[in-house]
């Protein structure tokens, strides 16, 4: 945080759970700032990769793995773009973004230029997904605003004369990027001539999901001080920006908001993906219920979301079933962008508490007060990643903190519920099986889930799916509908509970 209050200082950092060495245990990746046109650190700064020691501790292997970053980092997106079975990394930044290809031997190679990724502006969140159903992961990258030493603005407090972080409203919007995977290690930017390239925004968060169940993955994008985007994938390279028509672009007052973190999940169990966006204080968070006709209703006031978020600014946000009862819950991490806000608005704080919402009888209830001592503290939180680092079937959380140490939150929920974990491996479809539909039955109760990609803010999550069984001690069956170009449907019976299973397309449970 410099006296000049350069805007990129306040937006990071992101974080990720990933199994970079395929040993079955989640490792951690943390993004850091670094040299750029307004910042030359006196000591070298780098990102960090921590290998899981499988005993509750980690060790720093950044230099050994070759993933230090070296630019003013923002976020990270994890995905196996070359279908070789090893997770690769895209690190976004103010400045040069970096694509690290996993070599499969514990090291990575910077292949950014070789891959044809020319991302040198200000990129934030990114998501790997198969936009054309050819079995290879493509890449969407959020672009924020036009910023640089020749484009910056000075914003002074009228009373004290001190500089504060400018509201992004005064900066020019930009177009985000869509890169098609060519299948040979290179990418081609294909969004420029579509509505993705023609839609200028200030993108911070993105999630890839299928909102209309047509088998094509769509994109929900949060914009800061601009209308949010809903890019509907019409196939054959055609995209339609439908945020305004779908009623997810603006607040209830018809004005753009400061959208930051997003996510998608079928929170009401009707088989259709719903959407969530976290906004700045006094704008409240929005939960959009899918009306099944490419329209959504904001139902946040029917839950605890609106009341809990009036004075908070949300960044990382993720639906996940933290208590393994089979229904998605929600976690949001918060913090105001500018530390000078407390002198202007006493009820809004720079450091803010974490929020946890449990689904109870179809409603998301604020259970933060009973979620543990860390929820009584306040942070300048930004990124949020969800994953099971100790393999106990209870999903944990990793939080990136602006100007502070990260948080690793262990899930101690002891409700006695059971679970089954799935590591899906596509063969004809993309290796990460993004877009797969998972249906399962336990105790006679049937549930379903779409394997989305991205979500939250600047962060990437455990690629495994943990299916909550509630109090049922036996799994009736699991059905996996693999994404295109396969579309294969497989049913698994007799699977054990309370353990992780490797499920390979066309082979069922393996190992």
Question: Could you characterize the architecture of this molecule?
Answer:
The chain is mostly beta strands. The protein is 4% helix and 37% strand. The chain has a five-stranded antiparallel β-sheet with strand order 18-17-16-15-33. Strand 6 and strand 7 (98-102) form a beta hairpin. The longest helix has 4 residues, at 62-65. The radius of gyration is 21 Å and the shape is globular. The N and C termini lie far apart (49 Å). The model has no long low-confidence stretch (mean pLDDT 96).
Condensed summary:
The chain has 511 residues and is mostly beta strands.
Distance between the terminal alpha carbons, to the nearest Å? 49 Å
The level of helicity is under 10%
Query: Which overall shape is indicated by the principal axes computed on the Cα atoms?
Result: globular
Spatial order of strands in the largest sheet: 18-17-16-15-33
Mean pLDDT: 96
Largest sheet: 5 strands, antiparallel
Structural class: mainly beta
List the uncertain runs: none
Q: Total strand count, please?
A: 38
Radius of gyration based on Cα positions: 21 Å
Provide the β-strand percentage band. 35-45%
User: Helical element count?
Assistant: 5
